[in-house]
Amino acid sequence: MTIIQRLQPSDSLRKSGPGAIAGIAAALAATAVINGYQAHRAERRNPPKGRFLDVDGVRLHYMDKGEGPPVVLIHGNIVTSEDFICSGILDQLAESGYRAIAFDRPGMGYSDRPRGTLWTPAAQAALFRRAFDRLGLERPIVLGHSWGAMVAVALGLDHPQAVGGLILLAGYYYPTARVDAGLALPPAIPILGDVLRYTVSPLLGAALMPAFIKGMFAPCAVPDRFQESFAPAMSVRPSQIRAMAEDGSMMPSAAASVQRRYRELALPVVIMAGAEDKVVDADRQSTRLHKEIPYSTLRIVPNVGHMLHHAVPDSILAAIETVAQAVGGAESSKSAQVVTAA
After folding, report:
1. What's the pLDDT tens digit per position in 99-114?
2. In this structure, are residues 175 and 105 in contact, taking their beta carbons and an 8 Å threshold?
3. What is the mean pLDDT of the chain?
4. Of 45, 72, 181, 307, which sits with the fewest C-beta atoms within 10 Å of its C-beta?
5. Would you tell me how many other CB atoms lie within 10 Å of the CB of residue 208?
């Protein structure tokens, strides 16, 4: 009886219960206001650098530079389309005679992510496919990095007539247990996720961001150019946290849904990965994919991690040129067939 009495809350504690709850609610509300202010300030300091395109009610932000055969660039998680400016890929493509188009994926950067749609790789691919028509892009080469590689694969599988070839960088293609997918789940849950992304998640994201970035570039050092241009505050905005959480949490299921279709890819494909990638295992993902796609080319870059487009941009450009030549050869072959038939 004595023990039971000791475990019972005191009258003062019971009386303070409503007050404590109100205090917690007030603290969360204040945190939400602060995080909202920080998000607006981040956007004022980092205004959009590209153009906007409305595709079936979805406002897409993109950068478009150069003239020539089109190359579409699709970024991964955490970063935005500006990652291709920072790495130099966008400018180098434009200077090399290509038209380079880099999209912000839905919910990332300045692109919308309407609710009511499950933004799987296939759904994002369908959106970009419609954007191709709006921008007059005929069978572009599509380069996807990390999560963006899943979107590039979906474009090749679901819209093969709209794509000339694929460059897949550090992609995730087969379901494996991932700690980051589990961590991403809570902010992706409706209602609970909304509370988290306006209160706790931005603070936690800002605290962990330096470690995330370091791990993405390891074993290479984070380039000065990236440190100067990357804005962590943009990545921990509530809107982008939702996009990153939803995308990150669906990675295993998204990969599982298409892994039996990879052999259907019948277009030029170059698969590249860093041998020391700590984010996505090169052998379990890229090497395995190469074995399943007929006529694909595999390039594993030694002493490089997940952000290989920053470490070896010249190799990325060489891969694009390889695919461009293959696409050009295929087009020439089709033209010859038409002439012969005529």
Report:
1. 999 999 999 999 999 9
2. no
3. 89
4. 45
5. 12
| Residue found under tokens 């979906």 | 154
Residue 179: the pLDDT is 67
Q: Residue 271 phi/psi, 5° resolution?
A: -110, 125
Starting at the edge strand that comes first in sequence, how are the strands of the sheet with 70-74 ordered?
51-55, 58-65, 99-103, 70-74, 141-145, 165-169, 269-274, 297-301
Residue with tokens 């990675």, as numbered in its chain: 251
pTM above 0.70, yes or no: yes
Closest residue by Cα to residue 65 from 105, 103, 111: 103
What residues have CB less than 8 Å from 17, skipping those under 6 apart? Answer: none
Cβ within 8 Å of residue 141, ≥6 positions away: 69, 70, 71, 72, 163, 164, 165, 166, 167, 320, 323, 324, 327
C-alpha 227/C-alpha 98 separation (Å) is 27
Distance CA 168, CA 128 (A): 17
Nearest-angstrom CA–CA distance, 273 and 271 = 7
| C-alpha radius of gyration, the chain, whole number | 23
CB neighbour list of residue 272: distance below 8 Å, 6 or more residues apart: 167, 168, 169, 170, 286, 298, 299, 300, 301, 308, 315, 316, 319
Output the six-digit token pair for 289: 């994919």
Interatomic CA distance for residues 70 and 139, integer angstroms: 8
Residue-wise pLDDT for 261-308, tens only, equals 999 999 999 999 999 999 999 999 999 999 999 889 999 999 999 999
CA distances from 47 to 59, 85, 89, 101, 149 (A): 16, 15, 21, 18, 26
Q: What angle do CA 114, 120, 122 make, to 5 degrees?
A: 110
